[in-house]
Structures are given as structure tokens and as C-alpha cells.
Amino acid sequence: MSPRRFAEKHLREMNEELERRVEARTRELQMTNQALSQASKAKDEFLATMSHELRTPLTSVLGLTELLETGLQGPLTEKQLKSIQTIHTSGEHLLQLINDVLDLSKIEAGRLVLERTTVAVAEIAEASLQLVSEQAKQKDIQLTVTQSPQGMSITGDRRRLIQVLVNLLDNAVKFTPAGGEVGLDISGDAATESIAFAVWDTGIGISETDMPRLFQPFTQLDSRLARRHGGTGLGLALVRRMAEMHGGGVAVESSPDLGSRFVATLPWSPVILEEQNETIQATMAVAAVDERPLTDVLGRTPVVLLAEDSPASAAIITEYLELTGCSVIRAEHGEAALRQAEATHPDLILMDIQMPQMDGLEATQRLRAHHDCAVATIPVVALTALAMPGDRERCLNAGANAYLRKPFNLRMLRDVIRVQLFEQQEQAKGD
Questions:
Q1: How many Cβ atoms from other residues are within 10 Å of residue 114's Cβ?
Q2: Residue 328, pLDDT score
Q3: 101-151 residue pLDDT tens
Q4: Which of 131, 290, 346, 353 could serve as 360's disulfide partner, Cβ 3.0–4.6 Å?
Q5: Domain interval for residue 321
Q6: What is the distance between the alpha carbons of residues 159 and 107, in angstroms, rounded to a whole number?
Q7: How many domains does the chain fold into?
Q8: Residue 415: helix, strand or coil by DSSP?
Q9: Which of 383, 150, 416, 108 is nearest to 290 (CA)?
Q10: Whole-model pTM over 0.90
Q11: In the predicted model, what is the mean pLDDT of the chain?
């Protein structure tokens, strides 16, 4: 064989070997990608299942404690009320931990979508301070808030913005000794078009060597088993991620024993909306004192159809609604809900999404497609313990009028029902 033919043969063999290696490597990458895809899907399914399984019993725990706190079942002694409040606070804390884990998972997967609206800054501040006020009161910590200029608004996800402030305020209260101070200073800078939410405290402070680890998830600066302060180490990691998703960031200044100052800086369009802010505050004040029975909305006893497969959740919701002036019909799954809707024509349907035989989404879709207009137009409030990306949109696209994530506040449920009944009444007047 001539040197030329030998070289050509060798080159062909090398090319064939290279093609085989490329093909093998491609198959490996395809298998790896498929495995990663399956792992991601399994993770999502696991989170959805765990969310439902954890939120369902929490709905009963928080619902029962809230029902007892209202005194609608009868008066409690001071000692009993204190115990109930402790249970409720612990349940809320557990719920926050569940939310933090799920939110961090969504962010890392790129599946957390912000629901941007224009929100009054005063409303965000008030809601955030209210959520940590009880904890501060127990430690005799003074809470203060300043805002300059007044009447500011910001475009962002209201719930996530409150989550940022609550995590910062919660940390400040947690690491501040009894009798200390915690403050929230809010300032808008028209020149830089930014707004700063500064949370400061007179707490234990942070050493310079610990600063780099502050915003790492699942990291506690004091990781000893006997540490004085609990927590998962997710709060500050979520604060930073949420701020970045809003186009901002977080900075910190601190020294041991001299307190800390965390500043979340977000983009801001310097428009002062004093009238809007006053309207929001007035609306909040009216909602806070509106304890009238739901019979006042329709001038009669509203009939609510509750489609819920959890006996514990159904019992709590039923008792609360009956005590607030409603008549409640029960259905344990979607098919039963459709039959009851056809037979009784309720004023409103509370539709759980996770139910056997027929889930709430399918039941709502069938309801909206019903030949009887009186049945097809019944207001539906979706109730779900899944709380995964897209749940709200799926419920609304199926035909629900409103959406509540479990566990929900019973007063919030009452207010949502009140709004839906009022809108139904106004629509009937227009027709």
C-alpha cells in the first residue's frame, strides 16, 4: 500500500472513530438532559405535593385558632386566649417557613413571576409592621417608621415587597434584645429614581468576617445546635433575590453590639400620589371595621356552596360562615358541586381545587359551560393549597372569579365573599 493510500485510510479511520465518539457523547448528553428534565419534573411534583400536604392541616390549625380568637364560639379566659394566640403565631411561623422554601425553589428554577401593580408605599409599610408588631410587643421593642416624601407609590409585586420588608423587620426584632428599638426609614430620591427601604435596629450586630455569608441560603451565622436564635437562614437570601427581581439590591452596615442597618434599594418613578394613598388608607380603614353580617349585602341570608373534600377544613369554614350570616351547602367533590349548583342555585361557590373524582378546575369549567345561565354565572372563589407557579392563572382561566391560597385568613375569606356578593348584586341591578 502506497504511503498516500495508507494516509487516506488512516484519515478515514480517524474520522469514523471521531464520528463514533461524537455520536456516543451526544447520546450521553441526551440521556443526561433527559435525566435532568425528569429530576426537575419530579422536584416540581414533590414541591406541589408537599405544599398541598403541609398547607391542608395548617388551614385547619390556623382556621380553628382564628375562629376561637374571634369569640364567636363563646368567650375565652385570658389564659386560654393567650394559649390560642401562641398556637396561631407558631402556625403562621411554620407557614412562613414553607413559603420561603417554595419561593426560593421557584426563584432558582426561574419560575417565580412578579405580579406588578402600582402600590402605595404607606400601605406596604403598614402591612409589614403589622405582621411583626406582636413579636416586637412581646419583647417590649419599640417600632418606628418614617417616610419622605409622603404619598409615594412604587411599581412592583405587593406581596413580594411586603415579604422583603417583613423578613428584614423580623430579623431586626429577632436579634434585638428586649427593650430595644427597630425602625423602618423610607426615602425616595428623585435624582437617582430610586427608593430606599432601610430597616435598622439596636441589636447584637454582625462582624465583618460574617458579612460575606449573610445572603447565602440555608446559612446561619451561628450554626451551633445550642444557638440562641432560630431560623432556616432563608430570609436574607430571599430578600436579596426579591430585590434583584425588582431591579434593585440590598446593602448592609453593621458592627458587633452596635446594631445593623439593612437597605433595600428599588427603582422608583418619583410620582407623588397623595390622593391615591388617602383613598387606599380610607379603604383599608373601612374594611377593618366592616364586621357586619353578610346578610346585609343581599338583604337576606346568602347561600354558599362549599366544595371541599377535607372534613376538618369544611367544618371550620362552615361554622365560621354560618356564624357570620350564611347558609352553607356542602359538596365533597366536583361532581357533587355541579349537582348541588343545579339543584340549589347558590349565591356563591367556594371551590377547592384538589378534590377526588372531579377536581375544582374541571368543575368550574363545566359550570361556566352550563346551559342554564343562572348556574353558569354563579360566582366561584377558588381555594387551593398547591400555591405553585401558574396556579392563580389556571384558576382564573378556568372561570373562577377570585382565588385564595390556603391557609387563608377567615376574615379575608369573608371579605372576598362580601365583594363577590356585592358585585353580583350590582350586576343584577344593571340587568
A1: 15
A2: 95
A3: 777 766 766 667 788 888 899 989 988 898 888 889 989 999 999 998 888
A4: 353
A5: 289-430
A6: 15
A7: 2
A8: helix
A9: 416
A10: no
A11: 81
